Task: inverse folding
């Protein structure tokens, strides 16, 4: 993957670090970065919300995933749950995880179908039941711990990129 790929993520993460919340423009940028469709009902509903209302929902999610006193898995579960009132964030974890990664790039990991496929090829079973992002982050943390045993200090983002590549190239 090209170094330029994460430029949008890095730019949005920089704004979130300063502002402490995520607005509609940032969500739109991450939507493009994840290559997701924006011609959906939820995107229209989100667009119809006032930006201040979107930020009021995202600010607590940003705070919890950035809080170093909260275990990563607990922060992931809480942050994901806090985003669920927004249109398009009740189900599915791809865009929600991108937002959480932008809020805490060194703690959170992006979830998508390729990362899921990568986990499957490694022998991990990740169900799609409610709470999947928290379970995913538990596995990411487990993989980071395995890396530490081999003197590799991978961030959660490093792990998700590896899973993404594995999932894209694997049989799934």
Result:
């Amino acid at each position: 993957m090209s170094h330029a790929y994460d430029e949008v993520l890095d730019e949005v993460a920089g704004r979130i670090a300063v502002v402490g919340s995520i607005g509609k423009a940032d969500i739109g940028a991450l939507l493009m970065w994840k290559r997701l469709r924006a011609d959906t009902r939820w995107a229209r509903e989100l667009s119809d919300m006032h930006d201040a209302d979107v930020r009021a929902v995202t600010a607590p999610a940003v705070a919890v995933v950035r809080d170093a006193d909260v275990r990563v898995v607990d922060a992931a579960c809480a942050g994901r749950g806090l985003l669920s009132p927004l249109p398009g964030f009740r189900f599915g974890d791809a865009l929600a995880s991108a937002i959480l990664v932008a809020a805490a790039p060194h703690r959170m990991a992006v979830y998508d179908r390729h990362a899921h496929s990568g986990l499957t090829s490694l022998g991990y079973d990740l169900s799609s039941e409610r709470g999947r992002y928290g379970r995913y982050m538990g596995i990411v943390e487990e993989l980071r711990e395995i890396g530490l045993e081999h003197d590799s200090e991978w961030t959660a983002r490093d792990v998700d990129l590896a899973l993404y590549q594995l999932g894209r190239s694997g049989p799934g």
In short: The chain has a mean pLDDT of 89. The two ends are 19 Å apart (CA to CA). The chain has nine helices and no strands.
